[in-house]
Design goal:
By secondary structure, this protein is an alpha+beta fold. It has four helices and three strands; from the N terminus they run E-E-H-E-H-H-H.
């Protein structure tokens, strides 16, 4: 899976905010607010990755969560992106 549009992510008031750039501005208006894990997933989606790739990367980067918890977080986040037509 991969993002359909190009976004940049900036920190605004301690939150990560993704803003569309280029052609994405005509297809998606607004911005996305997310926590650090969401931004990590979002950045991974700039290239074509699988859910397993994301889960594995997060498990290596963040300690303290089980694979089941990580997978649920990844699925929840990517499902929201899919619902809004942001990933393919």
């Amino acid at each position: 899976m991969k993002l359909k549009y190009e976004f940049i992510i900036n920190k605004v008031a301690d939150k990560n905010v993704a803003v569309p750039v280029g052609d994405a501005m005509t297809n998606f208006s607004g911005f996305l607010k997310m926590n650090d894990v969401g931004a990590y997933i979002f950045n991974m989606l700039k290239t074509d990755v699988t859910e397993d790739d994301i889960v594995s990367a997060i498990a290596k980067e963040y300690s303290g969560a089980t694979e089941t918890e990580i997978r649920a977080t990844v699925q929840d986040f990517t499902n929201k992106l899919k619902e809004n037509g942001l990933v393919e």
